[in-house]
């Protein structure tokens, strides 16, 4: 495949950025998207040019480290069926055609400042989790598997919430730059389990306050967050979070 790449280049947080165009020839359709970028960087390095900086780690779709906006879509998820969504590292070049022009940009959010090129600082998501604090329940040593019964429905929902890998695609897709789906997943995960219930309402208010302080926008129910989520975190978790917030307000937490 012969492709044209239009890539956002920015030398540092305070530098001006711009789209730079590159030609890449003979790319295998079996290459992953990140392998294609590796090939580009090898070419740039051989020519004495600065390689493109981008995030990656496991390259298995489980760590949430990779994150690129590809042709205007976070992770490059083009399928109308969210079940086919995947992280950038699981996107392959067979999803494109010979002669295509591909535009690659970083996550765009006030809360995700650019470090260099396609790399952004996503520590704001970690600080939202930290604001939730610890659980106070003394769980002791590992209990027997069925020592604390959890209803099957709650266990399944908690598992859905725990699937969130914190990649930030929901933020990048939201017109408001909201982290509501991420926050809802983290709150719901613990709120459905026995050890997470004592601090549940306090956790809701503290995490939402932190989300606002970090510069994330508010949720206005566009639904783009869930549409691009590579782990199919359900949109209705936001409704769950809003209900919990209402209980917290009424309880004076």
UniProtKB/TrEMBL annotation:
Keywords: Iron, Iron-sulfur, Metal-binding. Pfam families: Fer2_3, Fer4_8. GO terms for molecular function: 2 iron, 2 sulfur cluster binding; electron transfer activity; metal ion binding. The keyword Metal-binding applies. PROSITE patterns: 2FE2S_FER_1, 4FE4S_FER_1, 4FE4S_FER_2. Residues 155-185 form the 4Fe-4S ferredoxin-type domain. One of its GO terms (biological process) is respiratory electron transport chain. Its cofactor is [3Fe-4S] cluster; [2Fe-2S] cluster. Belongs to the succinate dehydrogenase/fumarate reductase iron-sulfur protein family. This is Succinate dehydrogenase/fumarate reductase iron-sulfur subunit.
